[in-house]
Structures are given as C-alpha cells and as structure tokens.
Amino acid sequence: MYAQHQQTKTKKLVWSGYAVFVWSIVYMFPHLYWALGGTMGGFLLKPQRLEMAHFELINWIASVFLTVAGFIGLAFIYWSKGRVSSYTWLFISWAGCSLAASHGIFGIVDRILQITGVIGVESGSFHIHEDAYVVWDLLLFEPWFLIEGILFSIVGWCFLKKARSRKIWLAACIFGIVVGLVTGMMGVRFA
C-alpha cells in the first residue's frame, strides 16, 4: 500500500486530514472544560456522570485521545513519508474508523430503541423529563462518533491511490465496524 501512496498530496487527502483534525479538536474542548472542573453543559449527560469520582480524570483521558486523533489526521498530510509511518497511520485510522463508527451506530440504534420503548433505560422506561440525556446522546454524542469514524475511513481512502487498495481498505473498515457492532451487542463497548 505504501507504494500506492501519492508523493504529492491531493486536495482530498489534505481536506480529509484537516477534517479529522478539526472534528476531533472541536469535540475535545468540552471534555477539556469538564476535565478542568467545569460543570456547564452537564444537563447533556446522565445526571450521575457529573458526580462520578473519576469524572475529571475520564475527561482528561478523553481530551488526550481526541487530541491524538486530531493529530493523526495531520499525520496523513505531513508525516507519512516512510513505509512504516504510512502503515502506522493506516492502522490507527482503521482502528479509529472501526471503533468510532461502530460506537456511533450502536449508540444511535440503542438510543432509538430506548426512546421508542423497545428496551428500557437504567431507570426503567424512558421519560423525557428524567432521561433527557438519552435524547442528547442520540442527537449529539453518538452522531459525533459516527462522523469521526466516517472521517477516519475517508482519510485512509484518500491516502491510498490504487482502486484495489481502496477496495481492500473499504472491506477492512466494514469488517472492523461489524466486529465493533457484534462486541457492542455482546455488552462490550470501547468508549
């Protein structure tokens, strides 16, 4: 795959790399705010989340992960000169695509099923006034994961030049997402 990488960066690769960077960094700011002890916007979360003992630590970790994810997008543009680095960025992008997209898809479906009453929320059946966080998850947080996964798949796609490599990339991303969905249905969620 390394040999198929264009030496001159295409506009699509530059656009997709910056899209990953901007999308990740924008989502990092609320986590950084909460990591620093901020409470504004807490109504978007489960009521118990702000009271968790490790809430700030979790948001520090999320801030680091999101910053690294953003820089992965830039790495495709600026630091992909060698075979090892190219494979490294592709593997990380594949993992990011698989985890984020499967998390987003699973979360969206799960929240829709909770709102429609097919499955219950932790407190029983869904009530908008008590469980508004479910709606916020559906409209804000889960779509962010899905879009992040899509952006990681696009940057990997744009990085590759030959149609065969792109087909393999697409198949690998779909496989990773399916594995993520299956593990989600088994009760294992990675984020």
TrEMBL record:
<keyword id="KW-0812">Transmembrane</keyword>
<dbReference type="Pfam" id="PF13160">
    <property type="entry name" value="DUF3995"/>
</dbReference>
<feature type="transmembrane region" description="Helical">
    <location>
        <begin position="143"/>
        <end position="160"/>
    </location>
</feature>
<feature type="transmembrane region" description="Helical">
    <location>
        <begin position="12"/>
        <end position="37"/>
    </location>
</feature>
<dbReference type="InterPro" id="IPR025058">
    <property type="entry name" value="DUF3995"/>
</dbReference>
<feature type="transmembrane region" description="Helical">
    <location>
        <begin position="57"/>
        <end position="80"/>
    </location>
</feature>
<feature type="transmembrane region" description="Helical">
    <location>
        <begin position="87"/>
        <end position="109"/>
    </location>
</feature>
<protein>
    <submittedName>
        <fullName>DUF3995 domain-containing protein</fullName>
    </submittedName>
</protein>
<keyword id="KW-1133">Transmembrane helix</keyword>
<keyword id="KW-0472">Membrane</keyword>
<feature type="transmembrane region" description="Helical">
    <location>
        <begin position="167"/>
        <end position="188"/>
    </location>
</feature>
